[in-house]
Amino acid sequence: SPSCPDGRKRRVCYYYDPGISNVDYGEGHSMVPRRVAMAHSLVASYGLLNDMTRLRTRPASPEELLAFHDQKYVDLLGRLTPAAYMSDGNLRRTAEEHGIGPMRRLDGACTNDNPVIDGLMGYCLSYAGGSLAAARALCGGDHDVAINWSGGMHHACRGHANGFCYVNDIVLAIKQLLGRFRRVLYVDIDGHHGDGVEKAFADSNQVMTLSFHQYESQFFPGTGSIDDVGEGAGRYHALNVPLKKGMDDQGYHELFKPIVGKAMQVFQPDAVVLQCGADSLSGDRLAGLELSVGGHAECVRYLRGFNAPLLLLGGGGYTINHVASCWCYETAVAVGKEDEIAHEIPHHPYDHYYRSQGYRLQYRTEAPGSRSSGENKDAAVIRVKALE
Ligand code: V1P
Ligand code: CA
Ligand code: ZN
What we know:
- It is built from 12 helices and 8 strands.
- The chain has an 8-stranded parallel beta sheet, sandwiched between helices.
């Protein structure tokens, strides 16, 4: 069979909308959507597009967002342009009630996590449409792995933008998968807690959510403690692995593999969604975890090995050359060609971004000076017990 259960080959499909290169959160904002264009350009320059089916899909419709988001919020997103926001006081108030637009800290400084950006609705419909198309491709059974690096916006709530995320493509994709598959495992390796996805399915026993994240005072979003395990019918179907900064490949995988392995064994999901936020990489501008690209990609390789339909999504990641290197390397892992791609980054339109890494992918580089703490090992024991 083309999926070769025990072999290296997988039938992979891939979503990319070049419109992402024009999406701009504003000067000084940490979120740089162009990193997805950089990843795509790198994927193309390595020839990996020949190993995948390109999903040529329309953007989502506003109606499709209603599978999770509420009507008022979707209407707001449809009306919200920078010009309308500036000229219409009512719209400005409504936007701010829904988490969009300036937020003031006590000192008066403006953090503006979720700015009113040009082409906001088009951006949301594009990345949500990509995740929905990827989910549909898995439902159709013709693909084993589906990729949308522009998705993975795990903080968005039903009626509220949060943490750079306006619509929650992950929740939409999981709901799509539930039309065909009975149980879906969601794994989140972004450096932040996958709070929006966890909350959406907190009382469901059809979806198990499992987030690994940095968990320290003042670290966004502040949720995802080890005691947060879901509620009602979904009790013990939400799992959290809080980590201290400095966690490296070895410490991470001493947790990741037993916990994910146990979740696979106990929950027996029919499909898996992996949010591959790349801010868990060493040297990220926002987070303090210290995974190498190889360590991050090991999560993809490990989950791919279970041969369940696998949806790979992007997420955070704020040192953009690292992000693009990571998602390109993970694309290679998905198609089974990670050993065939050259260390040297090929000449391509974005190659100047890779100067600081010597124009090499550097996926084998171990994070320097990192350690894992005993506290995190205890977390594994407790968590695996919770699964018994
Ligand atoms: O800390 C906060 C908010 C602002 N206070 C009201 C609390 N926001 C964080 C948001 C991080 C979002 C991460 C998203 C993801 O998980 C998925 C895409 O990766 C924040 C931070 C920070 N250092 O945590 N916002 C910003 N920095 C920021 C920086 C520059 C411009 C605007 C926002
Ligand atoms: Ca996470
Ligand atoms: Zn993040």
